[in-house]
Amino acid sequence: MEDSTSPKREKANQDPREAGQPWEEVTAASSQGLESGLSEPLELEQGLETGPQPRSPPQSPQSRASIPLDDLTGPGASYPPSPPQEASYTPSPPALARQDLAAPWQSDKTTSVNPEAGTPHFHHLEQSSDKGESTASHTFQSEGSTFRQSQQTKHHLYGPEDVNYNNSKQKELRFNVFQDEDSNSNYDLDYAEPGVSELAPSMLEITIQSAKAYLQKTSSKSGLNLYDHLSDMLAKVLDERPENAVDIIESISQDVKMGHFRKKLDTLQNENEMLPTYEIAEKQRALFLQGNLEGADQELEDEIAENALPNVMESAFYFEQAGVGLGTDETYRIFLALKQLTDTHPIQRCRFWGKILGLEMNYIIAEVEFREGEDEEDVEEEDVIEERDDADSEADEDDEDQLPRTFYKTPQAIPKEENRTGANKYVYFVCNEPGRPWVKLPSVTPAQIVTARKIKKFFTGRLDAPIISYPPFPGNESNYLRAQIARISAGTHVSPLGFYQFGEEEGEEEEEVEGRRDSYEENPDFEGIQVIDLVESLSNWVHHVQHILSQGRCNWFNPIQKSEEEEEEEDEEKEEEKGEEPDYTEQEVGPPLLTPISEDLEIQNIPPWTTRLSSNLIPQYAVAVLRSNLWPGAYAFSNGKKFENFYIGWGHKYSPDNYTPPALPPVYQEYPSGAEITEMDDPTVEEEQAFRAAQEAAVLSAEENEETEEDEEEDDYDQE
Amino acid sequence: MDAESLLLSLELASGSGQGLSPDRRASLLTSLLLVKRDYRYDRVLFWGRILGLVADYYIAQGLSEDQLAPRKTLYSLNCMEWSLLPPATEEMMAQTSVVKGRFMGDPSHEYEHTELQKIKEGGKVFEEEVVVQIKEETRLVSIIDQIDKAVAIIPRGALFKTPFGPVHVNRTFEGLSLSEAKKLSSYFHFREPIQLKNKTLLEKADLDPSLDFMDSLEHDIPKGSWSIQMERGNALVVLRSLLWPGLTFFHAPRTKNCGYIYVGTGEKNIDLPFML
């Protein structure tokens, strides 16, 4: 701006020389107009301010404007100049600058500006230089100077001295395009010297007008014009004052352009994109408000008494020491969601099991134990019914040609465990995000666990998504999720030794087959273990969830027993099949409940668990943290007395080798191979002839035995 | 994630569950500042944590003015004392590609790998089993490099390229809009482009050379190796890599907050095609 203003000033200084006297009167009169003009272009003027001058608050230009006005009135009265040289000079460039701003700004408003722009401007120029300092000062003052201080010295330099009127005129013309004033502001300044000849103004004026008109030409594509855009941009830069503005000027330009469109699209954007945010926020708000129910006092006591809800925040605090956790806010929301769960369902005990990540959405899982006798009915699952071929084969026997009977016996479906036992000990609820409704997961069947061991699939986040895999998984994602939860619980839920003990009930230990102790209870005399001990030795931790056998159940189920029973009831035809059954299957045995985890198998030289103290810097208050290497994402902590298990991860087991899908089984031998069903090639000609020759030989030998019937048969044969 | 906005970034990335404990956080805040001063980096990123069996490695990276220049990697076992790692070379990658399994957590640990090497002795060529020792530090370097090249991402517009070559942080980056944030094409790999040259001229014509100078995630193989989710309503977009499980990228749309962190075992998920 400095550069542009100095030529302006030059011009301004030069012109007054030529400006005529008559303009003086106009000045005084137009001072009023100037005032009004001043207030309007203030905004633009502020935008134009640059340079070292500190930004003056909006009021100051006003105040400054008032000063020049005063000056105006003063000199206006005593127009013949004895200009206060110092003060007067500075206003000039800013005056000009303001005129520039005023001009475009006001040009938007008044249509009559342009034709007048040239002349008033010229007048301005004239008078500014003609009167020399006084004129200049008046001009400047009338405009009000914001560049006062900075320009002062320059003004002195350039003020009355410049004579290069002709040379610089052209240059100034160009600059003056920006300085176009509207009639109001221009008139003020148009006093003093007539200076420039009559012809030159019109040339100047025309050039200015055309240049300005060019800049104000509206773009056919965007409806903007360069003039407005540049002024907006400069206004923005002056407002924000970014560092190194010249480096980011292109981005600023883009932003200004985009700013035009923002308002129009705002409503649309808000509607489409912000809606889910608001939805979730609403749901979570409901979570927070659920506490404000009627009968608050009574319920408060009840709640405190029952205490089905775990202290999630406390566990979260300890896990955070281990570096595991979901963030305080999220955990609190989960806490509230759990509270909602316990309020709506008859729950004895509830625990935040963990979070499983999915492709599209995640699962937050709560482990729940219902109150005695309040089990909700399970959704009837479609059992994988494996039809027996026996029925078919029976029907076929009635046909003439007996189709060969297969000896394929479909493997019997192993029944799932009852609720509250084994793998179905707890019921699990999931939700995608706290605030969304909780969904109960179905119980797990052994077949699902067995198949889940063979596949490895990511969860998508939708419970009804199908699982496409080999071997085909019997169920959809909710079943797979439940199976994985069962496996993870069985593999990684541990507690400090002694925390749980076996109940002293029926002498189950005597029976070997069903000797699995599957119940435990809290040990009231548990005194806690030193944290250091917990970290150093793995034998201080025990599994408190039953191990799942390879059958898919925790308690062994003998499939043969059942079939033996069936045999007695059903047809005798079964007996044939029974003979072909495999022999007595061995009972599967797994490690008993409450085995220390030091007995866990290693994974190819990697220990199954990693223990850590949560903090090495302050060991006296640290907690022991256990991290599973078999199920990455399973954590357990204990501070000696308290403990908790948690899972956060993708829900898959770790294996150092690649996953290989199981090979297809060999093609099954369905039917006994024999002459009836074995395909034979059609006999070739030679074979037929040989056969016939053999037959004839036989006939001949028969003839020698003098039997006629054979001849006839032979004839039959030949005729066939 | 930027060391300057460590706390906020950790909070935003906490959806994946694995973060830092308070004492590590506090140590990081202090030590990264000192690292920045001592090594005179322009920007220090906390890269993440590699879980080892005995101890964990905490990794930080220092960037110079040019964002795409090779980064200096530092590691620490206690978030206080940082050691500079050597830059990764092709040889290192080849050497460590045979090592499988978890990291030990001890930088001086050596993996043993037996190879059959042909040794010429006096005209005869016979094979001999040679036990090659591979240091864990080397493995660390190459794993970090692989992860960076494969899954370090940055949103479109966060960096821009100047005509002179260097890549700078874009100060006028206001964040992606919500609709852009859900698309994979708005995210780029934070590395020198590989596939950019293979684009057709038509596609290149639509690109802005100052912003689109890196590969986008759209054409990653296998397709679907990124999980893109909105958390907290639509207030946060989280991308998780399925190829290197443990890498989480987060971005709050319409704000400048973005970053990525890796917390995991440092093993590639080769089973990915089976799992999708």
UniProtKB/TrEMBL annotation, chain A:
This is Radial spoke head protein 4 homolog A isoform X1. Residues 372-401, 503-513, 564-586, 703-720 have a biased composition (Acidic residues). The keyword Membrane does not apply. Residues 1-18, 123-133 have a biased composition (Basic and acidic residues). Residues 30-53 have a biased composition (Low complexity). Residues 1-166, 372-404, 503-522, 563-591, 687-720 are annotated as: Disordered. The gene is RSPH4A. It is found in: Cytoplasm, Cytoskeleton, Cilium axoneme. Its main location: cytoplasm. Keywords: Cell projection, Cilium, Cytoplasm, Cytoskeleton. It comes from Panthera pardus. Residues 134-152 have a biased composition (Polar residues). The keyword Transit peptide does not apply. One of its GO terms (cellular component) is radial spoke.
From TrEMBL, chain B:
Keywords: Cell projection, Cilium, Cilium biogenesis/degradation, Cytoplasm, Cytoskeleton, Flagellum. It comes from the Eukaryota. Its main location: other. InterPro entries: RSP9. This is Radial spoke head protein 9 homolog. GO terms for cellular component: axoneme; kinocilium. It is found in: Cell projection, Kinocilium; Cytoplasm, Cytoskeleton, Flagellum axoneme.
